[in-house]
């Protein structure tokens, strides 16, 4: 019997576009897929190697890649990111980490600091639950209510789509809604708990690279206080509010987002 080894990249449906000396490594968020970065691929493939992939449980990733125990915390997704970096021998990386992938990207950068140059957070949060003076945007009852919807397989997709977009679904945004609809409930339940129960605040002072923190001023998942918190607690960070509303401004308002990203990618003068 012949056994064919499939690389992690094959199982994660990795796409590499462009061949520049530096790498944009794009990691999507909860219940999304790599296509959410198509506007960044188009805009930066002439100057960068742009790498996109589907997180385990989402998009076109191999269903056999999914393992509930591995992805019960964000550490599993961070380990996948490190695996991908090593397998493709990626260097001079700027991470575009959307939502949950901002913190998993930070974790990966702490494991492979020599491979990274910069981090870009999109709608990031180190802690979604309110905690004393810290305002993450969600009370315990909020997240428990969402878990219940997922567990009952009833109405959670509509609730999540509204949270991500913060606006009525149009033809342009239909793709986001359809991707949410396509996620298996058992995956959503495990990853939702990994995401909402995480507390990555202790990691922030350990960041070793410049960080661009981006979000809209009308994000139902991440209030503006969270962006300000990130900017204060990361050693080298700048906060940029981009136009529009919702949790995925790189997709809903790509021109403005790409302009801000391009400015951040320009090396500082020596």
Structure at a glance:
The protein is of the alpha/beta class and 270 residues long. It contains eleven helices and seven strands. It has a single domain, classed as Rossmann fold, CATH 3.40.50.
Poorly predicted tracts of residues: none
The string of secondary-structure elements, in order, is HEEHEHEHEHHHHEHEHH
- And the CATH topology? Rossmann fold
Mean pLDDT: 91
The main pleated sheet reads as: 7 strands, mixed
Secondary structure elements and their pairing?
Blueprint: H1 8-11, E1 15-17, E2 22-27, H2 38-44, E3 48-52, H3 74-88, E4 93-98, H4 100-111, E5 116-122, H5 140-152, H6 156-165, H7 174-181, H8 185-196, E6 211-215, H9 224-233, E7 237-241, H10 249-252, H11 254-265
Parallel strand pairs: 2-3, 2-4, 4-5, 5-6, 6-7
Antiparallel strand pairs: 1-3
Attribute tags:
single chain; seven-stranded mixed beta sheet; 7 strands; Rossmann fold; alpha/beta; 270 residues
What do these coordinates show?
- By secondary structure, this protein is α/β, with parallel strands linked by helices.
- It has a single domain, classed as Alpha/Beta hydrolase fold, catalytic domain (Rossmann fold), CATH 3.40.50.1820.
- It is 40% helix and 14% strand.
- It contains eleven helices and seven strands.
- It has a seven-stranded mixed sheet, sandwiched between helices.
- Helix 9 links the parallel strand 6 and strand 7.
- Helix 3 crosses helix 4, helix 5 packs antiparallel against helix 8 and helix 6 packs antiparallel against helix 7.
- The chain is globular, with a radius of gyration of 17 Å.
């Amino acid at each position: 019997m012949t056994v064919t080894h499939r690389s992690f990249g094959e199982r994660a449906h990795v796409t590499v576009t462009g061949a520049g000396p530096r790498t944009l490594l794009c990691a999507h968020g909860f219940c999304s897929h790599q296509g959410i970065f198509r506007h960044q691929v188009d805009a930066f493939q002439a100057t960068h190697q742009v790498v996109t992939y589907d997180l385990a449980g989402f998009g076109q990733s191999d269903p056999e890649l999914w393992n509930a125990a591995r992805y019960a915390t964000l550490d599993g997704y961070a380990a996948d990111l490190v695996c991908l970096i090593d397998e493709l021998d990626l260097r001079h990386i700027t991470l575009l980490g959307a939502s949950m992938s901002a913190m998993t990207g930070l974790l990966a950068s702490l494991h492979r600091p020599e491979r990274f140059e910069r981090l870009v957070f999109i709608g990031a949060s180190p802690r979604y639950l309110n905690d004393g003076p810290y305002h993450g945007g969600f009370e315990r009852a909020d997240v428990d209510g969402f878990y219940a919807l997922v567990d009952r397989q009833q109405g959670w997709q509509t609730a999540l789509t509204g949270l991500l977009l913060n606006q009525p679904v149009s033809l342009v945004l239909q793709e986001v809604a359809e991707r949410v609809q396509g996620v298996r409930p058992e995956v959503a339940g495990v990853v939702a708990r990994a995401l909402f129960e995480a507390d990555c605040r202790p990691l922030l002072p350990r960041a070793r690279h410049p960080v661009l923190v981006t979000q809209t001023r009308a994000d139902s998942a991440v209030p503006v206080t969270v962006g300000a918190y990130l900017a204060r607690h990361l050693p080298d960070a700048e906060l940029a509010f981009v136009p529009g509303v919702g949790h995925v401004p790189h997709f809903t308002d790509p021109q403005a987002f790409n302009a801000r990203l391009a400015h951040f990618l320009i090396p500082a003068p020596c």
